Amino acid sequence: MLLIPDLCWDDRVHYWEGWKKSPGRKVAVFHDAMPLNLPGQAGSNEQLFEQYVRALGGMDEVVCISREVREDLLRYWKKFEVSEKATPLLMWPVPFTGARPGNTPNQQSRQVLYVARLKLRKNHLVLLDACEKVWKKGVDFSLNLVGVSDAFFDTGLILARVSELKSKGRMVRWLKHISDDELNEAYKNSAFTAFPSKMEGFGLPIIESLWHRRPVICGRNGAIGEVAREGGGCYLIDQNNTDELAEAIERLLEDRDFYHELYQQSDSRKFRSWTEYGDDLEELLRLNQGLSEQ
């Protein structure tokens, strides 16, 4: 059996024609259709990515990480006139090993954290504008941005806005790339996180924040909403609406009862491990193998 667990962002799909002729089942994991959904904002050649999506039609089945991802794949297969194959759903586990951090409520820290690579679809500009609205009302808090810039993405607009706000004395810091230990401390020291990304294949940073027992402000759309609604701890908004995002930030900073309600929900979240994910994947492959042999 051939298992392809990663996205193909390059010309590797040119070799797939040869693989089609080899014996055994061929299974791929599909993470997202971002380069096709948001052209120019995903750092990938859209033509190459279209070839990849077409090539997925040569698999025996394609495992999708969210319902939205599956819907996207089926929509593009239809658009490209590719015959549908089985598309089972298997959502990601929490990306950590070891004991879950025992972080206690920390609203008094007045720190908001956003963990995401700097690129426009992550909506940093909307977040920065929303924070400025809250700062202008005299609400005291700081914003910490964690995530690298990338040559693929136009990060100049984001960094220029950060510099502008800092010149006004606003408490915003770009921490760039930090170690795992430093990231754990950043979560521990924060009151909550914001994740205003426009679109995701899954929304792993939401799970990461909840794993650290930190409530999350995020969108309600697509795969983001799927993850956020799974067990609470999230404040779901229209993340593209600056006023709505500003109101959510202010409420979590100022409303003690609401903050603790979301904290308790995040504290109660249940998470699947990589071991459980592996068992589920093995069972899925075994089940479908049995069906294909009948």
Topology, please?
Elements: E1 2-4, H1 16-20, E2 26-30, H2 34-37, H3 46-56, E3 61-64, H4 67-79, E4 111-115, H5 124-136, E5 142-146, H6 156-167, E6 172-176, H7 180-189, E7 192-195, H8 204-211, E8 216-219, H9 222-229, E9 234-237, H10 242-254, H11 256-268, H12 274-293
Parallel strand pairs: 1-2, 2-3, 4-5, 4-7, 5-6, 7-8, 8-9
Helix pairs in contact: 5-6, 5-10
Describe, in plain words, how this protein is organized in 3D.
- The protein has 294 residues and is α/β, with parallel strands linked by helices.
- The protein folds into two domains: 2-93 and 273-293, no CATH class; 107-268, 3-Layer(aba) Sandwich (Rossmann fold).
- The chain is built from twelve helices and nine strands.
- The strands form two sheets. The protein has a six-stranded parallel β-sheet with strand order 6-5-4-7-8-9, sandwiched between helices. Strands 1-2-3 form a three-stranded parallel β-sheet.
- Strand 5 (142-146), helix 6 and strand 6 (172-176) form a beta-alpha-beta unit.
- Helix 5 (124-136) packs parallel to helix 6 and helix 5 (124-136) packs across helix 10.
- The chain is globular and about 65 Å long.
- Mean pLDDT is 88; it is low at 290-294.
Largest sheet: 6 strands, parallel
CATH class of the largest domain: Alpha Beta
Query: What value does the Rg take, in angstroms?
Result: 21 Å
CATH 4th-level superfamily of the largest domain: Glycogen Phosphorylase B
**Order of adjacent strands in the largest pleated sheet:** 6-5-4-7-8-9
CATH-defined fold name of the largest domain: Rossmann fold
Q: Assign the structural class, choosing from mainly alpha, mainly beta, alpha/beta, alpha+beta, or little secondary structure.
A: alpha/beta
* Unreliable sequence segments: 290-294
- The N- and C-terminal alpha carbons lie at a distance of 18 Å
Query: How many domain modules?
Result: 2
Proper CATH architecture of the largest domain: 3-Layer(aba) Sandwich
Helices and strands, in N-to-C order?
A: EHEHHEHEHEHEHEHEHEHHH
Question: Tally of extended strands?
Answer: 9
